[in-house]
## 1
Amino acid sequence: MGPPRPQPLPSDAGERAGGRLAPHGQRAPLLGRVVPPSSARDLTTAAPWWYVSRHLDSRRSPPLNYRPGIPRYLQIADTIRGELRDEGERIASEHALCARFKVSRPTIRQALDVLVQEGRLYRHAGRGTFATPAAGGDRKLRVIGSVGDMMALGDETWFKFVSREVVLLPANIAQALRLPPRSSAYCIVGVRHSEAGPFQHVTAYMPLTIGTALSEEDLSKTSMIGAIERLLGIPIKLMEQVVDAALAPRQVAEQLQIRARSPLLFFERTYFALSGEPVEHTISWQTGRRYPYRIVLSRAERRN
């Protein structure tokens, strides 16, 4: 049983995904939160009753009294910024915002562009403009950046099994697990869910000794590596991974309830125990809207 492999992104994939996954050579919007300058923060106050359900109702929004000397699009951007709940909500259409702020569409687009560049909003082609979920505002919105984050993600979400079985390993996965060619391993396939729905398709391979020991365990509310640590007493020391952007294969798209060939984050991860031995090799297809990925790069110390 071999995992589905990533397919190259077409040149317009980043545009069709609303800019969340940019093709090679282009920059995707930042995922972090940007604090606006103090001069902009004081322009307006937030109006939490601006939202009805998950959509903005511009008819109930208070009028904006523009200050002289400050571009209107910046004042509009600051007003929208202050009213965002950072829960992935959809904001009003450009037409509705034009009516609310009594400005032209180019001015509204300038204001939205500011928030997109900050990472506070993202555009989804054919669906509209949405708030970027904030990692600090909701315990369910976790930014992934460490092995500890991966374990916590398993505790904060739930895993729905598709299959558990012993399989013959492809050569590349046998190599990753440091097993002889044509070795067998335990394979778990499933989909991880948050309250907003499925967001990650997982195929995990483990040596038979580890997989067999976990075969009767309830892994629906934990990560595999968390179970390996807690149930088997094998500390996880580090993880090696490859990250790519790829188009969702049909069977993955069906499980994630998205359209086939939608752009996704593609991860190959190998987890190593304190002893240095690999204990799990995982292939994941993940949407980036709710659980963004963070990486920290550092410079190696110079040797004299």
## 2
Amino acid sequence: MITIGIDVSKKTMVGVAINRFSKIKEEFNFGNNKVEIDNWISCIINRYKNITVASEATAEYHRLLALSCLDKGIGYRLLNPIVTKQFTKATVRKRKTDKQDALIIAKLALTGVGNMVTSKSFDTTKSYTRTAAKLVHLEGTLRLVAKRFEELVPDDKGAFKSLTKCIKQLEKCTKFLRKRGISKTNKNDVKLLETIPGIGRIIAPVLLSEIGDINNFKTIKSLVAYAGIDPRVKQSGMGLKHNTHLTKRGSPYLRQSLFQAASIARIHNEELKNYYQKKRDEGKRYKEATIATSRKLLYRVYAVLKRKTGYVVR
């Protein structure tokens, strides 16, 4: 059995292969492109049997390597960068090189750390929903720019009209991407999430694409941590603080969608409205109270997706 840890970057890959006794068998250096990855995979298939490749989750940079490995029947394990960082900090020398990172990834993967991924793990829905969210942000910025321009140069109607056309084109492109994202999402899961107050046809695909397989989360606490809406815990002596800043780990797109859904739900759902008001009465600000509400909303999302039954308003 051979485990290969890969330190992934935008242009290059650094790898270390170890056996089941954690002894280094070989080191690798190759480019992060289709040709070099395929050549590397052909080489290791000829040299070793029962191979597992592992890397950290690095935005989209590990995607090509993972899909190429899966296509050749090689198991691929994806690790949370936080885990490898904590492991590095725990070592005495605290070395930080690409080779050392690859070795740490290999050792952690050998012990079962991380999740084995499949081709379904790289669903393209996330690309559509994330790009649409970025365009919405650009649209908002451009609206402010256009408004400011009209105030400064009120006589140049042609330039303002051109800016308006850009805004309309962004709106059109956003709608197109959202429509494509919806078409690639599981229709039954979308219908299930739409039974939850605050979640509609725009937010549901984002939640599904960002969460992925709900079975990867054994408890609701693990999903809350993944969303990054759990508070940091600080302890000093006998003092223990829970009400600190959020950890903000995981997907910012997931947090943003939950915040939007909670803002809507607290208006239309009596239970969440009362919960939000309770937090406000406790002295929480608008943002803090809404985040607490989004956490409660995520409980509903978890229950609905786990049980495969719609939410029933009480």
